[in-house]
User: What shape does this take?
Amino acid sequence: MTTSKTQVAIIGGGPSGLMLSQLLHLKGIETVVLERQTRDYVLGRIRAGVLEHGFVELMREARCGERMDREGEIHEGFSISDRGTMHRIDLEGLTGGQTVMVYGQTELTRDLYDAREKMGGIVIHEAEDVQPHDMTTDAPYVTYTKAGETHRIDCDFIIGADGFHGVSRKSIPADQIREYEKVYPFGWLGILSETKPAHDELIYARSDRGFALCSLRSQVLSRYYVQVPLTDTVENWSDDRFWDELKARLPEDVAARLETGPSIEKSIAPLRSFVAEPMRYGNMFLAGDAAHIVPPTGAKGLNSAASDIYYLYHAMLSHYENGDDSGLDAYSDTALRRVWKAQRFSWWMTSMLHVFPDHPEFDQKLQSIELDYFLSSEAARTSLAENYVGLPF
Ligand code: FAS
Ligand code: PHB
Assistant: This one.
């Protein structure tokens, strides 16, 4: 077994782990990132597309924002199509100037990897059987195997940034953690196509056939989703069937101008709401999907990870620069306050825009009037807008 030492050992080389590693390294704090997949595998996952202002600022602070600022699109609003009638939500007007950035998670993860490499950051790929140890002592450590050899890394802190299926949350004793979960009775079938986007802004569509979303990655790369039953499989969906179903859920004028083409990625993601409390166990801190998951309807998954990283970054700085642990001690409560607000918004957008076939008629009527109220009230649209652009960190 080889042994080494670092200050902060980070499990997970997704956006959460890479962002924290980059921010801390810029302040002279040593980190090691342990990622079980290859870099190409991580970059092959198609996920989030919309960044809140807070995430954009964090990318710039991490000196990773140059390509995002050059290639990303600032969006000042989005539309909700209610049974074929479009209603624009004027984010900039309703929030006094705030906007969102459309820039794919794949690209920002690539930028973070490139920045880590440029700074000589230590990211160990294909790290197998990563295990956190002695988290409740002042000498925690992590072990992993690579190419058949076992390694130990002694550290001050362990960060569990290893996503929903990671090892860190599962290594916390059951009596030390509480989990809250809601599973939705449908999933999202998503495709990526090298086609011109259907609209210049995102469209969240509510139709009697089910929810649909028109998003994009650039002016030549479109991202679309349709709600499908949990029992559905990608094999059931030819490209032609997908395009026909998407058009049937969109306003007629949007459907008429929709540019179709072969899918270059097609997958079904289940929808769940999940929170683990607290987000700390001794000297191990959970961040991002390791601690919480939202249905992607509110574009809050990646953006909730951003606020976790923001709080952890500043707490670690206070520890190493001033010997002040108040930020670390407050981390879980601080992060969870914002996490639960993102949970609420994501659950609300999902409940309002999807078809729940088993809901009683009274609930179906409530769902219709909820959307009708939010689209007809300036105060309600302002509430929707301030949540969509991102509540302050
Ligand atoms: P991640 O899951 O991205 O990264 C965790 C990393 O840890 C992974 O690279 C994994 O390989 C690694 N890992 C796991 N176990 C490990 C172990 N034992 N040892 C070492 N490494 C380990 N959010 C949105 O805002 N909008 C969306 O449209 C959207 N779509 C999504 C679609 C899917 C299918 C999924 C799964 C998520 C989606 N999300 C979306 C949420 C997603 O973007 C997450 O919020 C984001 O990836 C969170 O980043 P991380 O916390 O870094 O977790
Ligand atoms: C995406 O572009 O993948 C996307 C955008 C907004 C969402 C969900 C997904 O709410």
Notes: Residues 11-17, 34-37, 42, 47-49, 105, 127, 130, 161-163, 165-167, 269, 288-289, 296, 299-303, 305 surround arabino-flavin-adenine dinucleotide (ligand 1) (CB under 6 Å). The chain has two domains: 2-76+98-181+272-350, 184-271+357-389.
